[in-house]
Structure formats: structure tokens, C-alpha cells
Amino acid sequence: MPETRNTMRSQARAADQPLSVAGWAVHVPGLTEAELPGSPAEPACAPEDAKDVLGRKGLLGKEPSTRLALCATHRALGLPPGKLAEPLPYAPGTAVVVASNLGNVETVSTVLDDMRSRGGSVVSPLDAPNASSNVIASSIAIRYGFNGPNLAVCSGATAGLDAVRLARLLLLAGRAERAVVVGVEPADPVARALAALRPGDPGELVAGAGCVLLGRPGAWPTDTGITVGPVTRHTSDPGPAGGQPVVGELYGAAGVVHLAAAAARLAGDSDTGATTVRCGDADDAWLTVDVTRAGARREAGAAA
User: Which residues have a Cβ under 8 Å from the Cβ of 246 and sit 6 or more positions away?
Assistant: First the structure.
């Protein structure tokens, strides 16, 4: 029994362990760093201009949500524009976790309509892979060579921080060395129509993506001093998160976009040491996570 209790205590401590945020990026077309921290200095490009970030090769047939997710990942990794010149040394053992509720819904709808009206032979070979529920996560893994676990999350308004929670589990359980967490939603007519059916007044869906790089200290080649704690679930509205920007309805991408923006804000603001990120709604519940700058922890400890 004592050994069992000690094991349980160790597991509880591990579950509370903060993880490093080694990089981040926000890619909401038309927005800049001044409007949404973590965005590029120039307005983020639309999906059809993703070649400006990723290069032309490998984008044929990619859906808008996949292009946005790739742009956010590329920038979070700190890579120059264009296709990779050589394999990433930290790709092995890196997991990919993507949150998106409506990422490929337009393709699925189109493929089903075509099959019902004209038969399966009319489905384009370029469209068929996009009908897979994990096309975004697999596209990221293939492009950058990440061979760790590959997960897709579509759990409603909490999807973004659900993806962060799953990435934490993978890392703390030793299933992955690092994790690339992405949240993305498109804003095509089909996606907007479905998003508008949500209870309450969710607002009009906005296309955008966010990416954060998570890992244990030292897992990534960069150390930003930003950490993220465990994700907490709330059955009632926990109230607004301080300083969380309002940029439109991001739905399943919201948790990751706001986490990336919070990390960028903490990194550039020496007066702010910690903040809380939230996502969710009355239908899907709420999730929150604390984001902290390393210097703030030392200052708090010294003050105590």
C-alpha cells in the first residue's frame, strides 16, 4: 500500500508539472502583431497566398485550413519562407495534435454530394485524401517529418485546449519528446453555416490558425522562459480571461490561438508575469490553462 500511495503521489506531481512553450505563432489572415500578438508584422496571408510562407511545392490540392495550419506551424518553428532545405534535427519523436471542428467539412460535403449524384468515380484523387478527418495533422507531420503520435481533436468549443491537454499527456507519459499543437478553422460557406447552428450567439466564424511548441525543458533547441500548466475543466463559466483578445469566432481553434497570443504577449511584456487562457461555451463546458513567464516565478518566490 505505501508503494501504491507513493506512485499515485508521483503521478499527481507529474500531471501538475508545467511544460515549456518553445515557440508560437498566430496566423489569422489580415491581422498583424499589433492587432493580435503572435501574428506576423505584416498582415497574415490568406490560404491562397500560403506559397509566400511555404513555397509553391506541395500545396496543390491542400485545403484552406491545412494551408493556414502549415503557415502557423512554419512560423512557430522559426523557419525561413519556402520548403525545407534539409530535415529538421528535432523531428523524430515529435507529436502533432491538431484541433479543428470544421477543417475539412466543405470537402466532405462536396465529395458526398458528388458521389450521391454521379457516383464514386467522379471524386478527384486530389479531393479524396482531404476527406480524412486527420488530414491537417497528417499533412503537418509529412511536411516536417514529425514521426511521433498524430492526433486530431474535434470536441467543439473546447477543442483547442483539449489538444493542449492531450499533448501534455503524451509528453508526461513519455510517448513523445516534443509536441506541435495546432488549432485551425476555415471560414468557407459550409463551415460558417454549421458554426451558426451552435446555441446562443456564437458570432461569425473567422478563418485562422495558431501553433504552440510544447515540451519538457530542453526538449526544443529554444528556451523562451514561458511555461504552461495543466488544463482545468469547468462546468460553469469561469469568467473572462484577463487580456484575452477578441478577434472573432475561432471555435475549435480558439484555445490554441489564444495560448499562442498569450505566450507572445508575456514574452514581450516585462510587467506581466502570468495570464490565464480560456475557451469553451455553455454547450461544451469551459477549459482554462495558466501561462507563466519564468522570471515572474522567480520574482514571486523571492517576494514570498
Answer: none
DSSP helix/strand/coil, 257? helix
Instruction: Let me know if 81 is exposed, middle or buried by CB neighbors in 10 A (0-12, 13-18, 19+).
Output: exposed
- Decide the pairing of beta strands 19-27 and 274-281: unpaired
Which residues of the chain, if any, have pLDDT below 50? 1, 4-13, 297-304
Q: CB-based contacts of 155: which residues, under 8 Å, 6+ apart?
A: 99, 101, 162, 252, 284
What is the distance between the alpha carbons of residues 184 and 199, in angstroms, rounded to a whole number? 21
Beta bridge partners of 233: 287
Q: Are the beta carbons of 105 and 251 closer than 8 angstroms?
A: no
Ordered DSSP codes for 23-70: EEEEE-TT--TTTSTTS-SSPPPPGGGTHHHH-STT-TT--HHHHHHH
Q: Which residue has the cell 485545403?
A: 63
Instruction: Give the pTM.
Output: 0.90
The Cα 146–Cα 40 span in angstroms is: 24
Dump pLDDT digits (tens) for 193-244: 999 999 888 889 999 999 999 999 999 999 999 999 999 999 888 887 777 8
